[in-house]
Amino acid sequence: MVFGSFDATNVGYALNNFKLFTSPSGLPGTFLEYTTDYSVLNNTITLGTTAAPVIPVAGTYFVVQLKSLDGGKNWMAMGLQKTRHIHRIIIDPTNPNTVYAGAIGSPWGEHKERGVYKTIDGGKTWKQILYKNIKTGVADLVMDPSNPNKLIAAMWEHKRDPWFFKSGGEGSGLYITHDGGDTWKEITEKEGFPKGELGRIGVAISRSNPNVVYALVEAKKNALYKSEDGGFKWKKINDKPGIGNRPFYYSEIYVDPQNENRIYSVFTYVNVSDDGGKNFKELMLSLIHI
Asked: Using CA atoms, how far apart are residues 181 and 115, in angstroms rounded to an integer?
């Protein structure tokens, strides 16, 4: 694998495999590492990883934000270790020094280092720009391909115990910013979202028509919602089983970059819709599990 080719498919394939790496500056020892998300822009590759020591110590898991300026030959640790887990990384396509990190946080504990973070100096310093409570992290984070100042964040309150898993709470919700995170607006039933307590939400923006946005919402009745005005107003499209199962594990949805009506729901199976989410059919048995 040559990182310098910057082929997104190949990079994703390479980075989603387990591997051993010698820790970057400031991190002791050798670690077993797997990538949770990555972002590539020019010669800059930014990784969000979860790492554990090769000789494990119970509960010793932390996140490492890594950055390379030479196509992956050398890496630097860029902070955010206390977030524990980073679900999404997005680099501003107009300025590689501006990066957003969606920290889901630890599923086992309660801590304030979770939510959406932003750096404008290439990772030297970070600012928490969206935070709800000590149990709520980022389940998804997407950027409008036509406007790097517009982002949509799915906040998810959750807590895992050895005997139980709680998905949902007052911290969960969908938020939109049009000014790079300075201000956020919550999407509620007034805009067409379901009433009551929400759980995990998956979000996808159409690259061919950024006004089209999809949200896979865990609620009292799980459903797929769609906006055709960039996220201001929403309507329920589908609440049939084909949209996906076990949303607290999955809630992953993607739009064909060339067809706003072709969407993929990735869960225990991979299902596809060619009519904007009204109907899904099974594309492949993926045997995915977390």
From this structure: 12
Sorting pLDDT into bands at 50, 70 and 90, what band is 286? low
The two tokens of residue 59 are 């509960």
Q: What is the mean pLDDT of residues 263-280?
A: 91
SS3 content of the chain, % helix, strand, coil (to 5): 5, 45, 45
- Picking from 141, 145, 95, the residue whose alpha carbon sits closest to that of residue 120 is 95
Architecture of the structural domain at 1-187: Beta Barrel (2.40)
Q: What is the CA radius of gyration of the chain?
A: 18
The predicted model scores a pTM of 0.80
DSSP string of 177-226? ESSTTSS-EEE-GGGTPPSS-B--EEEEE-SS-TT-EEEEE-SSS-EEEE
Q: Which residues on neighbouring strands pair with residue 118, listed in sequence order?
A: 100, 127
Residues 75-97: tens digit of each pLDDT: 888 889 899 899 899 999 999 99
Contact 14, 1 (CB under 8 A): yes
Instruction: Give the pLDDT band of residue 20 (cuts 50, 70, 90).
Output: very low
Query: What CATH number should be reported for the domain whose range is 198-290?
Result: 2.40.10
Q: Are 179 and 151 in contact (CB under 8 A)?
A: no
Q: In what order do the strands lie in the sheet with 30-41?
A: 19-22, 30-41, 44-53, 62-68, 76-77
Q: For the chain, which residues make up each domain, given as ranges? A: 1-187, 198-290
Distance, in Å, from the CA atom of 142 to the CA atom of 176, rounded to the nearest integer, reads 10
